[in-house]
What we know:
Blueprint: H1 16-28, H2 33-45, H3 53-65
Helix pairs in contact: 1-2, 1-3
Amino acid sequence: MPPQIERVQTGVRMERRLVKVLKAVAEYHDISLGDLLEGIVLHAFEGKCAFSSDSLERIATLASVYDLDLSAADSHTLVEAQ
Length: 82
């Protein structure tokens, strides 16, 4: 039996193009955006990659489509436009 959990609504703000890619990835995998984010975070907490090589190729394509040119090196350094 899968673990039973309690979900809460959040009000996080994220970079627009990143959200577009995340939504497209969730749609591709036929899961909700919340489920995708939970999976990514749980994998990250264990130091694991959340995606297969096929999924990473798909993500690269989607990032190109949505002009997402950010990388992990940009994390924690982004500045919101005024």
